[in-house]
What we know:
Distance between the termini: 26 Å
Strand order of the largest sheet: 2-3-4-5-6-7-8-9
Radius of gyration: 23 Å
Low-confidence stretches: none
Mean pLDDT: 96
Oligomer: single chain
Amino acid sequence: MSRPTCAVIDLKALSANLDFARKLAPNKKVMAIVKADAYGHGLARVAHALQSADAYGVACLEEASQLRKEGIDKAIILLEGPFTADELPEIARLELEIVIHEPAQIDMLERARLKTPLRVWLKIDTGMHRLGFAPEAVADAWGRITHSPNVAGSVRLMTHLADAHARDDSTTEAQLACFQKAVKDLPGERCIANSAGLMAWPHAHADWVRPGLMLYGVSPFANGSGPEAGLAPVMTLSSKLIAVKKLQAGDAVGYGGVWHCPSDMPVGVVAAGYGDGYPRHAKVGTSVLVNEVAAPLIGQVSMDMLTVDLRKVPTAKVGDAVVLWGKGLPIEIVARQADTIPYELLCGVNKRIRFIDDGTG
Length: 361
């Protein structure tokens, strides 16, 4: 028997979430964001499940190369562009598209000798101050890119929203206004909305939308959850009880003895820990499901195990099912209880655990 910790990936939920994104932004092109191993879900399986998307967005050449090796032949966009000039010939060979956000990247492009020209996206910094050209530098950058013989077709224009997840924050309106002013005299398709922009700011949809987190069934907003927003959770991280202890009042549980039983009680040991990607800093009281019943975490999370209070599940026994997040327990709840964000939990799942594809929905 193998260790029971596993991540079940619901492929039908992935497709349903992409359909949901299309319904929110009808007649718009969709760039599915699959960087960081598809937010921990597995790059290849996710890309194949999302083949109805118009394009894929990745962070680096290595991710794009993996997709090509998996037989993905549609548009792939390198969201951070080329890191060095040496990458450009391979980018051209693989027929990838690049985001240009920095003058040095234009220099690389102008000096390169490529067998085939590249599709280019020009990124504008509208207030996030991370990547992109300042609004006053956009026209010059666009001109240089457009006149390069290494560029094919019209340059597409994009920006990134810093606070779209805050529905009442004026920053998004300011960014949208800044973007429109910066590109008003330039041709080319526009791309603005991430998951939060797609879900909460319809006037940010432009020509392309680029959902990321929402594709995986997780809400991009500070409160609430994916299921409440109409999204279907894709990853269910689960395990089993490997021990049930009958402890007495005052007994210490776990490293450091930081938690003591307030009464005689059953305590369950789950085969999952921070070595699997479960957050070590999860607070006492963080929810898990034992036989579909909420049971609070107690003691400190170990590398391979965690302990739970079974007083609400007194008949629980070794081998019983435990859900750490996913169906029945939105990951947003766990993230809030662990003082982190769903992105970090998803991306932190360790590849030592088994990944199981579930196409049954």
